[in-house]
Predict the structure.
Amino acid sequence: MRCTDGSARRSWLRAAGAGLAIVLLPGRSVAAGAVRKPAPRVVALPPPETPGDADALKEQAARRMVAAHPDISYLGPPPEPLLAIPVLEVELHADGSVRRIRVLRQPRQARDTTQLAIDIVRHAAPYGDVSHLPRPWKFVEVFLFDDERHFKPATLDR
């Protein structure tokens, strides 16, 4: 026997592939919001050292990015093929905090990795006092993302 009571018709469904929860009510449906994975863990870092030159700044920045994001980074050889390779130019204030981030290369697929890379840069800052270095206080980082959206700064491949 079918139940015609409206409360018995309410149910939660997962929209296949879209990650949305849908609430079915008598006569209408309402999107309840996206189902998301928990945010990756961001580790608090000790104060940065003062980099001696532009190369030391870039290396220290890459190491801080990986150290701040242990759950979504890797250090081994990059896989073939890579999922995405966004490239960012990071401009700093004299104290090593992020002044501006410019996207130099947006990948064609997995475009969300560009925002991931931007967030990674911001969470790992500051990058040390750069006031003694010649201006502009900038560095370019190439991010190597694998299929699981784990990253490696290409600077660490040298």
